[in-house]
Amino acid sequence: MRTKLLGLFGAAMLVQATTATAEELNLYTTREPKLVEPLLESFKTDTGITVNTIFLKDGMPERIEQEGAASPADVLMTVDIGNLVDLVDRGLTQPVQSEVLSAAIPENLRDKEGNWFALSLRARALYAAKDLDLTSFQYEDLAKPEWKGKVCIRSGQHPYNVALTAAYITHHGADETKAWLEGVKANLARKAGGGDRDVARDIMGGICDIGIANTYYVGLMRSGAGGPEQEEWVKSIKLVLPTFENGGTQVNVSGAAVAKNAPNKEQAVKLLEYLVSDAAQKIYAEANFEYPVKAGIEVSPLVGEFGELKVDSTDLTAIARERKAASELAEQVGFDN
């Protein structure tokens, strides 16, 4: 009996020791599981840390606020600079100081106080009919009369276009941006709406010659992920990386932050640092045809052939602060009407 009790006691101590030393963290994310899971599996293999993941379609800030100080969230991962800045403004993040993150991520693609970090990029690009003699383009050109009746674009109130308009404000001010929006609207071949991939469809259909859409959709269509119909759409276009006058290409980001009340902060920082490693950045490039945030990582061949991405140097937080003004300007000019 004594031997049996000692055995049970030893087993109990082993379980307790295993539980005490096991590392884990809790991730809240709005990214699709198929994009996140390869990264998390690679992270666990590399570090031994388990990531418990809550996938949220929306409502992340509200959920964390409701959970309060008892929130189990360690890392908050989302898409769009506006969503990242909102988390900071609502007091749901905490600053992180990391030499690894600072070295890997350009200064304009991370919060100055360390409250959020970009992890991958998607550029707002030009889709153009293949037969057009067009190798360079500026966002300002969209409003030129030569493109009257030739432009397709999704809603001016969609976050992708609100971010582009906000970036335009940072470059040119509100008055010039309003005039630009009026010019783009006058050039539309159809009512603003639909999705980015519909721009390729409508170029193939002869409805328009050019349009604005995200780069990674080209990779998705070319890969066959959207089906054979979309493979035909993308064959009709070429992709050009526009720039601002005296600037670069406008980008938006996927990114992450450490939650204010993170119970596993050390592990949370390890995850963020892993996500800017060469291995993780390569997964970002291959899984969703996004641009790596870290220099020196190859882009997927399905989008890399369109040339080097020269990211606009405007601070993303400054762009995010202009989102409300951008939305209001689109409303004032009746962009979607």
Automatic annotation (TrEMBL):
One GO location term (cellular component): outer membrane-bounded periplasmic space
Binding site residues for Fe cation: Y216, Y217
Protein name: Extracellular solute-binding protein
Keyword annotations of the record: Iron, Metal-binding, Signal
UniProt GO MF annotations: metal ion binding
UniProt signal peptide: 1-22
UniProt keyword Iron present: yes
